[in-house]
Write a structure and sequence with these properties.
This protein is of the alpha/beta class. The chain has one domain. Helices cover 34% and strands 13% of the residues. It is built from 4 helices and 3 strands, in the order H-E-H-E-H-E-H. Helix 2 links the parallel strand 1 and strand 2.
Length: 146
Amino acid sequence: MAPAGGTGRFDEALAWGWRLVSPKWRGEFGETAWPAKAGETRKLVVLFTDAHTTANEHEIGKTPSNLGWNNGSTQMFETMDDQCTRMKKSGVDVMIFHVLGNVKGQPYMKQCATENMYYGVKNKEDLIAAVKKATVMGNGAPRLIY
């Protein structure tokens, strides 16, 4: 397995994942009964990432925020962790599959994930084992939304 080397923003991906399960967005996706109300069902946002990401202009130049090209910024990772904390407080579990990539993001990814829901993935076997473990946590029958 090789890192994707992308330049996406996983903090934005997490924000959209949260919207997809938040009752505050109920009815906004063409379904009046979806997302489910708080407490009706277990809610889980899953992020697959190599932790490579761009830094926004306002984040660049802040000490010690510049982590190098395509490695994001300390400010962005801290914002992501704050976002994850708020998600978890609202009853949403956060599962992180950290596939190779940016090691500077690892402590933040571990902090972001709900307890026992961080998976460091270095190869195909790690990925298969992590996905199997994740589906067992969902009783093997998760309802996927995207």
